[in-house]
Amino acid sequence: MMYYYFVGIGGIGMSGLARYFHAHGSAVSGYDRTASPLTSSLQELGISICTSANGLEIDADFKAWLALTARAERAVIRTPAVPENFQILQAARQVHCPVLKRSELLGKLTRNHPTLAVAGTHGKTTTSALLAHLMMGRPEGCRAFIGGVLSAQESNVIWSEGAQWTVVEADEFDRSFLELDPTHAVITSADLDHLDIYGDAREFHQGLRDFAKRVSGTLFLEESIDIPQLNGLRYGIVEVEERAHSLHIAAIRPRVLDGWLVADVAMNQTIHPAVQFPMPGRHNVLNALAAVALATEAGADFADCLARLRSFSGIERRFAYHIRESHGVYIDDYAHHPTELKAAISAARMHHPGKEITGVFQPHLFSRTRDHMVEFGQALALLDRVFLLPVYPAREEPIPGIDSQALFENIPHPLKHLIESHQIFDNLKEHPPEVLLSLGAGDIDRVVKPLAKWLREDPSRFKHST
Prior knowledge:
By secondary structure, this protein is of the alpha/beta class. The protein has helices spanning 12-23, 37-44, 55-68, 87-94, 102-110, 124-135, 195-198, 201-213, 241-244, 282-297, 302-308, 338-351, 366-371, 373-380, 404-409, 424-430, 448-457; strands spanning 2-7, 27-32, 48-51, 73-78, 99-101, 115-119, 143-150, 155-159, 166-170, 184-187, 219-222, 233-238, 249-257, 260-267, 270-277, 320-325, 328-333, 357-362, 385-388, 416-418, 435-440.
């Protein structure tokens, strides 16, 4: 039996791997600084998890695991968000216990197995989830490791025992995607991000080219990606049918029909009219096209994939409706990059025309806030009213001069408010929304359910339309 100790087991990617290895006969334990719904769900499976910020308690738990596994095959798995000098990692190295990054474990798991990988700055989780849903429509199913919780399965990992194909997210952070050797892959977008890792655009683009070299089969690229020496089959959205045939797969004239986003879809000289897409926004049309392209490359039937899109039930925190009533709407989204903010706001306007859009945004990472200060301001100015929260630091130390006050001053908008998390409810009482968006990748998710409950309790907490 193999013994694994996951450091940062509550992370979305780490928890999925922990769940999978536990189900397949490995002994799994782990540590995370704070308890969460994900750690609780793992503990319910019988996985032992230490959740503490006390150094002595952390040390005692890990030493007990080392003693238990002294004569066994074992490894410590770490997320890149955990610093190299963290006490568990130091203790493991002192006794020559192997320490692997999460991406290395995922690479070992998928090596020499047919793999579909989804890379790109935006859309990885939605595209991977849609792809897994399409592949699960095949008799043999698939196994998939998703960076979000699938609404239907209430899990971030799914598998069929007879699966041939594995679906994974190819994460550019820390160059993790270079641990993968995909059969087929897609790059959904190439907007600059993680410049704390890459330094500049040239190195970021080189990272994408290096990933592309690891793909043994077909690489798909969203049509607007323009990086020298990065080539692949293109997909995209077009407004006229004639342009569709220059792409491998295209959505023609996306429009809202009876509350749903529909488009004609063209591939291999065949056009399927009025295909219904399961998630709002043109960006999610692109994500669905990428998923269909990969699924068909893996042998799925094109028409079956288009039909199966309708039954996709969504992902938590990806344009997730919590209230969708005539008197008001509340949507939660993981958007944490200017391009993602623009996409989420655009989707809200497309599906709720004429309504005032209020956003509560929590910036994620000091470095990302610094690198995209102006772009964040421009994106947030697309809202009708902005509530800005403090920066969520995650793995980072503060950067002098970079905080929410600096970002606030860069939002060219008169209706903006700089607030703390505990002030959200009072501010919404003072300025009731018509359509409310909560946005960000930090711990803003902890306010989503309480906020939805509070809004449901009294319809007058939404602004009455005039």
